[in-house]
Amino acid sequence: MANAETATELQREVRIAADAETVFEFFTDPEKATLWMGTSAEMDPQPGGVYRVNVMGEHMARGEYVAVEPPSRVAFTWGWEDEDASVRPGASTVEVTLEPDGDGTLVRLVHRNLPDEESRQRHGMGWDHYLSRLMIAAAGGDAGPDRGPQPE
To answer: What digits encode the pLDDT tens for the residues 79-101?
Structure first.
């Protein structure tokens, strides 16, 4: 997993042993989404459509799709419905690009407009955790019960 961060964004890159068409569905199909992130999801994968995921049954991430370009790119706004969240719905954007890589797919995730270092660190830890789960689920494995990101 490759990681990078700037003042307002974080970047993650993983290789998944599945084709781009398969991986793409894990960002647009609610049933597949909950195999790697969230206990439930509501997704309408078209520009302006809802993106909503109940993460661990405790926190609701909400946004809307900005771009849906199967099977190579999906982007959606992101934030938390919790009243005390530093990143509110629509305040940041997640862009995922999928590039064929031999018999797998290179997944690049960029999370932009994170307001401060603490939110970058927390979201970075979260994306590390969930992309690891995505690598298992999209390749046809069972990511198991989600216990959330664990501090090192």
So the answer is: 999 988 889 999 999 999 999 99
